[in-house]
Amino acid sequence: MALLASVGSVQLLNCARGQATTISALQDFTKKPENLICLLQEPWYDRHGHPPILPGFDSFTPTPIKPKCVTYVRRISGLTATTTFTAHDSFLGTTITSVRNSTTITFTLFNFYSPGRAEPIARLIPSIPVPKECILMGDLNAHHVWWQVSRIWRDRLLSAAAGAALTLATLWLILVSAATATVILRA
């Protein structure tokens, strides 16, 4: 988790497409200057299919209309971001570069929303070029068996992650690859 600590506060939110939820969550996020990056899944859209604009932040989406995920990065000196990976309307990779005290840290922050089930992400993971330094966060809909949802795609997701040199590290499904990449999967 040292990569996240290197840039400041990163928050993950799923707003289930609700306007009030999305607006309220983003307003709360922007109030604290230490909040630098927000990964949002299932945002509310305006009548043109665009997620909210956040003043003082750059926004990144996998598609310009009705994206299933948005990454917001605060515009501050020493922090830059660039889109480096997109797939469909639900999968986004943003390369983050943080320069502090003459130290530069660069990593890819993946923001994934697997719509409705784990199948889309389980199929995508084997084709993703995993950078040496990366973090994968999102709502992968890999529901726990206690919630009585089919385990087939959750198990395939975990198998695909293992095939990409990602290994299970904790109950929260924080996965760390052999290449020091960190992956966080929300169960």
Q: Could you report the average pLDDT, rounded to the nearest whole number?
A: 78
Query: Number of helical runs?
Result: 4
Largest sheet: 7 strands, mixed
Within CATH, the superfamily carries the name Endonuclease/exonuclease/phosphatase
Q: Low-confidence runs (pLDDT<50, min 5 residues)? A: 167-187
Arrangement of strands in the largest sheet: 5-6-7-8-11-10-9
CATH topology title: Deoxyribonuclease I, Chain A
CATH secondary-structure class: Alpha Beta
Strand content: 35-45%
End-to-end gap? 18 Å
- State the order of secondary-structure elements, H for helix, E for strand: HEHEEEEEEHEHEEE
Radius of gyration: 16 Å
Based on DSSP secondary structure assignment, what is the total number of beta strands? Answer: 11
**Structural class label:** alpha/beta
CATH architecture: 4-Layer Sandwich
**Rough outline:** globular
Q: Please give the domain count.
A: 1
Q: Helical amount among residues, as a percent range?
A: 10-25%
Topology overview:
Blueprint (H helix, E strand, L loop, with lengths): L1 H6 L1 E6 L4 H13 L3 E7 L15 E4 L8 E6 L4 E9 L3 E10 L2 E11 L5 H6 L9 E6 L12 H12 L2 E3 L5 E4 L4 E3 L3
Parallel strand pairs: 1-2, 7-8, 8-11
Antiparallel strand pairs: 2-4, 3-4, 5-6, 6-7, 9-10, 10-11
Q: How is this structure best described in words?
A:
- The chain has a single domain (2-184), classed as Deoxyribonuclease I, Chain A.
- β10 (174-177) and β11 form a beta hairpin.
- The strands form two sheets. The chain has a seven-stranded mixed β-sheet with strand order 5-6-7-8-11-10-9.
- The longest helix is centred in the first third of the chain and has 13 residues, at 19-31.
- It is of the alpha/beta class and 187 residues long.
- It is built from four helices and eleven strands; from the N terminus they run αβαββββββαβαβββ.
- Residues 167-187 have low confidence and may be disordered.
